[in-house]
Design brief:
The protein is of the alpha+beta class. It has 5 helices and 27 strands. It has a 6-stranded mixed sheet, with helices on one face. Strands 2-11-15-13-12-16 form a 6-stranded antiparallel beta barrel.
């Protein structure tokens, strides 16, 4: 009897093992991260780095060459329009004025004499006392003398202008932000290459000048709001607006590219009510330009979106990773994977332990604008759906329509594994 019971027990155990192995679902279950789709405000931002500059800045240089006698201002000093800033040595130019004035007097005296002779010659010619040829000669002398007077007057005006240019005055209200010459140095006056003596800036109006890539500049409009982060002052943030977008482009050679990279200069006017002490011209700043805003938008994490061929799942490659950027758009579609609740099953040989599994649905989607972390979802999924957010390998290679998944255990800050709720 005892032997029969032992045999019967062995048969029951073997039957149970066989039943469990044959009835167990052997479908591969992929561990993933997932979260519910929510609504939020999405801001599409274009970021670029540039420098803070005054809107109005004048580099003051001399138009005449002379020694600097006196600098009447210091760096950081406030100046007004018409205020004398620099005095150059004027002795040589005063002498030129005296010479030009004397030459003008001489030419005027000669002109008066020739004019009198010509007037007498006209009367003599009318009385047939001189020939026509003699009259023409005197008329030519008269015209030449008149021209000499005009030339002398022009030289005097030029000499006076050069003399006046030995005193340099401020062309605007502002602050002296740089002094590049000292008293005793030569100011090299030139109309072709400026020899800057000092720089005056209007610090009541500032802007950031940035270069924007051609692919991003098309999204920017005049008036777009901008958040400005000053590198030297990480705890403060300034606000501003796009004030100018260049029409002409400039390019630079890429390090690993044969084609030039095309940029457009964009100027951002800083809202001076947000200006703080310590922000100086020339400081580096990062400008975050908000190009579009979508409020209360259905949002999906950027890492959830992938691309899959428009063809059936069976034709997908099992070995080659699919990327958004390596396939032609006409053959691909944007998709996400949504987790649908599956029945609760016992898995493994740990009898009685239950684990929630999910069935994956591959859904083509249409996306709108994007922020740094989220896409705006226009169609394909709904608020509250459970979307797969990781891992990268699962989303871009492993998952297919109908795949089984489970929530991946994550480590808590104490190092123990913890289940996502």
């Amino acid at each position: 009897m005892k032997k029969i019971l032992i045999i019967l027990a062995a048969v029951i155990i073997i039957a149970a093992v066989v039943w469990r192995n044959t009835s167990r679902d052997t479908t591969k279950i992929i561990s993933v991260q997932m979260e519910e789709i929510q609504r939020m405000t999405i801001e599409q931002v274009v970021s670029a780095t540039g420098n803070i500059q005054p809107v109005s800045e004048v580099k003051l240089s001399a138009n005449v060459s002379s020694e600097i006698i006196e600098l009447k201002v210091e760096e950081g000093e406030q100046v007004e329009v018409g205020e004398v800033l620099v005095v150059l040595d004027s002795l040589k130019y005063s002498a030129y004025v005296a010479q030009a004035r004397s030459a003008l007097l001489a030419s005027q005296a000669g002109y008066e004499q020739v004019k009198s002779e010509f007037d007498r010659a006209v009367q003599l010619f009318e009385n047939n006392l001189i020939s026509h040829q003699e009259l023409e000669a005197l008329e030519a002398n008269y015209t030449l003398s008149e021209s000499n007077v005009e030339q002398s007057r022009a030289r005097l005006e030029q000499s006076i202008d050069d003399l006046q240019k030995t005193v340099l005055k401020s062309p605007l209200n502002g602050t002296v932000t740089s002094i590049q010459k000292e008293a005793g140095e030569m100011a090299l006056g030139s109309v072709f290459q400026a020899d800057v003596i000092l720089v005056i800036s209007d610090l009541t109006s500032m802007e950031v000048i940035v270069d924007i890539d051609e692919t991003d500049v098309v999204d920017i409009d005049l008036g777009n709001e901008v958040e400005i982060e000053v590198d030297a002052l990480p705890d403060i943030s300034l606000s501003g607006n796009v004030s100018q977008i260049a029409i002409s482009s400039k390019s630079s050679q890429g390090m690993l590219m044969q084609e030039d990279i095309v940029y457009y200069e964009v100027r951002i006017r800083i809202d001076m009510t947000s200006m703080v002490q310590g922000v100086l011209p020339g400081m580096s700043a990062t400008s975050n330009i908000t190009t579009r805003i979508s409020e209360n938008a259905v949002a999906i994490p950027i890492q959830s979106l992938t691309a899959r061929p428009v063809t059936k799942e069976d034709n997908e490659s099992k070995d080659e990773e699919i990327s958004l950027y390596t396939q032609e758009s006409k053959d691909m579609e944007d998709v996400v994977f949504i987790a649908m609740a599956d029945t609760v099953k016992k898995t493994g040989l740990k009898f009685g332990k239950k684990e929630s599994t999910y069935i994956v649905e591959k859904r083509p989607v249409i996306i709108g604008i994007s922020s740094n972390n989220f896409y705006e979802l226009l169609s394909g999924a709904n608020e509250g759906d459970l979307i797969i957010t990781g891992n990268y390998k699962a989303i871009n290679k492993e998952l297919k329509d109908g795949s089984k998944v489970k929530k991946k255990a994550r480590k808590s800050f104490r190092g123990k594994k913890k289940k996502d709720e």
